[in-house]
UniProtKB/TrEMBL annotation:
Protein's organism: Parapedobacter pyrenivorans
Site (Important for catalytic activity): 218
Gene Ontology MF, one: metal ion binding
Residue numbers marked as site, Interaction with DNA substrate: 248
Required cofactor(s): Mg(2+); Mn(2+)
Active site per the UniProt annotation: 106, 147, 248
Lineage of source species: Bacteria, Pseudomonadati, Bacteroidota, Sphingobacteriia, Sphingobacteriales
Name of the protein in question: Exodeoxyribonuclease III
Binding site for Mg(2+): 7, 34, 147, 149, 247-248
Length: 258
């Protein structure tokens, strides 16, 4: 099974890019973030014509997440991260596909930090940690993936000294990510490429992609029972170089099983 995650930075604006990428790489399951589309404007029929069934949670102008599958329609479990019924942001959706739970998330950016947006990011991380443990307690295969807006270590960012005060790299953010990982999750990219410089995001400004001045903030975390089934992982960097593309590149893994 090939599973991919991609922050599309507007599904309708990037639809030609998404369709081209799907045709060229043919992932079995896709998690999308930052749809920037209300529920009714999601291009369900177009994606179905491309071979993918979808579940999605849209939001006007901002956020939005979706799970696509060409292995049958995803069996939706929930479309909000538990723990705060007043949080109306469309940042989380979860489904079962071929006996694997796929959790797609778009974690808050948190800037400027410190401040209310950073406080929201940390609360969201705390809720994620609680829910992630509840998932692990089920003892079934789980993929936790998406745009985490977390730079885990210095190797994951170009010139880390420039990011010390950014919400993606502040000590509180990295500490929360470490607490999540300590539950037993495996970072798929780092499992296969422990020391390699790998980025998943390059800003539109200052020729960041051309200079390879990037960040690794899109992650695949695998539950203990699923991690031994990991066979390959990578980043489709070439997509970031296409015209009118997202500032993120798709990330993917391959695991044993249908």
């Amino acid at each position: 099974m090939k599973i991919a995650t991609y922050n599309v930075n507007s599904i309708n604006a990037r639809l030609p890019i998404v369709l081209r990428w799907l045709e060229e790489t043919k992932p079995d399951v896709v998690c999308l973030q930052e749809l920037k589309s209300i529920q009714e404007n999601y291009p369900d029929e177009v994606l179905r014509d491309a071979g993918y069934e979808s579940i999605w949670h849209g939001q006007k102008s901002w956020n939005g997440v979706a799970i696509l599958s060409r292995l049958g329609k995803p069996e939706e479990i929930c479309r909000a991260l538990p723990g705060d019924p007043d949080d109306t942001h469309s940042r989380y959706i979860e489904a079962k596909i071929n006996e694997v739970i796929v959790s797609c998330l778009y974690l808050p950016n948190g800037n400027p930090a410190p401040g209310p947006k950073f406080d929201y990011k940390l609360r969201w991380l705390d809720r994620l940690i609680v829910h992630a443990q509840a998932l692990l307690d089920q003892k079934i295969p789980i993929v936790l993936t998406g745009d985490f807006n977390v730079i885990p270590t210095e190797i994951d960012v170009y010139k880390p000294e420039r990011w010390v005060d950014d919400a993606l790299f502040r000590p509180e953010t990295r500490d929360a990510f470490r607490r999540l990982m300590a539950q037993g999750w495996t970072d798929a990219i780092r499992k296969l490429y422990p020391d390699q410089t790998i980025y998943t995001f390059w800003d539109y400004f200052r020729n960041a992609f051309g200079r390879d001045a990037g960040l690794r903030i899109d992650h695949f975390l695998l539950s203990p029972g699923l991690a031994p089934r990991l066979r390959a992982a990578g980043v489709d960097r070439q997509v970031r170089g296409w015209e009118k593309t997202s500032d993120h590149a798709p990330v993917w893994i391959e695991i044993d099983g249908n």
